């Protein structure tokens, strides 16, 4: 049987979450920092550990069948790959920032200015779309110190919390793109069945992360009210308790409005609420 290859970041911001995701998909492999390639013992798959910049091209050229990488890197390398699944981690935005003391406040005011970045392709398109002509200075790192050194009037860099900008006396004022880690694949791969199986495993892990398993006790007379508070769930399981007036309700609740729901359930008489993480949800 053909062995698939998936490329993930060797070390850096996406490494740990990429490894965790693959392990949660039930894949067994060693994560030695020194190895560039690691076989999976219970699935026809090999994991390639690479610099993130190389991942999109490896996938486009068919050296890897799949890859996990930030959208920012995909767009910067301008490759033609299939977006298979957004992964919900590695979230950040590419922003233009200037020094706190600068009076530039609008994108239009960047005309004729210089902007330092490690993302010249994405920035170039953004400036063109906004009808701006600016001098893009491509540097390979530590972009945030360039205005302070007098190398550029502005920077275009990735921001997650904004802490690095702040500590370098910079303020962001324009969003160029937002990004997260995505699972990509080569267009027209001949290993569709195996790839589909992996995508389904990934999706079952992501779905599980978004939901909690909840068990609660409620007086039978209040059951209807509780069931009304659990929309979206086709049929929660209702189990009789030893005390005949009471039942236990088992259901799943989306993580995002979790606390609001719990409060409403308590107000409706729910007691002994137990919340558990879910490992996988297979539809
Ligand atoms: P490599 O050695 O693999 O080339 P790198 O230094 O280019 O690593 P990292 O800094 O590890 O890359 O970031 C990897 C990805 O993490 C980015 O391309 C981006 O998609 C995402 N990311 C999330 N938050 C941030 C952030 N605050 N700064 C930079 N990247 C971020
Ligand atoms: Mg890189």
TrEMBL record:
InterPro entries: ATP-PRT_HisG_long, ATP_PRibTrfase_cat, ATP_PRibTrfase_CS, ATP_PRibTrfase_HisG, HisG_C, N-reg_PII-like_a/b, N-reg_PII/ATP_PRibTrfase_C
Catalyzed reactions per annotation: 1-(5-phospho-beta-D-ribosyl)-ATP + diphosphate = 5-phospho-alpha-D-ribose 1-diphosphate + ATP
Gene3D superfamilies hit by this protein: 3.30.70.120, Periplasmic binding protein-like II (3.40.190.10)
Group of enzyme by EC: transferase
GO cellular component: cytoplasm
Regulation: Feedback inhibited by histidine.
Highest taxon listed in the record's lineage: Bacteria
EC number(s) stated in the UniProt entry for this protein: 2.4.2.17
PROSITE patterns in UniProt: ATP_P_PHORIBOSYLTR (PS01316)
Gene Ontology molecular functions: ATP binding; ATP phosphoribosyltransferase activity; magnesium ion binding
UniProt cross-references to NCBIfam families, sorted A to Z: hisG (TIGR00070), HisG_C-term (TIGR03455)
Name used for this protein in its record: ATP phosphoribosyltransferase
Organism: Mucilaginibacter straminoryzae
Lineage of the species this protein comes from: Bacteria, Pseudomonadati, Bacteroidota, Sphingobacteriia, Sphingobacteriales
């Amino acid at each position: 049987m053909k062995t698939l290859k998936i490329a993930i970041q060797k070390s850096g911001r996406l490494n740990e979450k990429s490894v965790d995701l693959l392990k949660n998909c039930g894949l067994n492999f060693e994560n030695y920092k020194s190895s560039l390639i690691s076989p999976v013992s219970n699935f026809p798959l090999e994991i390639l550990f690479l610099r993130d910049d190389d991942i999109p091209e490896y996938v486009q050229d068919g050296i890897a069948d799949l890859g996990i990488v930030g959208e920012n890197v995909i767009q910067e390398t301008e490759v033609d790959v299939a977006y298979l699944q957004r992964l919900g981690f590695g979230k950040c935005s590419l922003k233009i920032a200037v020094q706190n003391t600068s009076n530039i406040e609008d994108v239009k005011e960047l005309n004729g200015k210089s902007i330092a970045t490690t993302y010249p392709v994405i920035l170039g398109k953004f400036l063109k779309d906004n009808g701006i002509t600016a001098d893009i200075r491509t540097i390979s790192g530590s972009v945030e110190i360039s205005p302070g050194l007098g190398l550029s009037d502005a920077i275009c860099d990735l921001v997650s919390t904004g802490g690095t900008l702040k500590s370098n006396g910079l303020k962001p004022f324009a969003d160029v793109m937002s990004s997260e880690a995505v699972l990509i694949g080569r267009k027209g791969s001949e290993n569709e069945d195996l790839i589909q199986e992996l995508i389904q495993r990934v999706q079952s892990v992501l779905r599980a992360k978004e939901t909690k398993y909840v068990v609660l006790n409620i007086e039978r007379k209040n059951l209807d009210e509780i069931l009304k508070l659990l929309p979206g769930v086709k049929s929660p399981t209702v189990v009789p308790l030893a005390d005949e007036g009471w039942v236990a309700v088992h259901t799943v609740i989306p993580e995002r409005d979790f606390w609001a729901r719990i409060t409403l359930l308590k107000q409706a008489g729910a007691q002994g609420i137990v919340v558990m993480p879910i490992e996988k949800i297979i539809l």
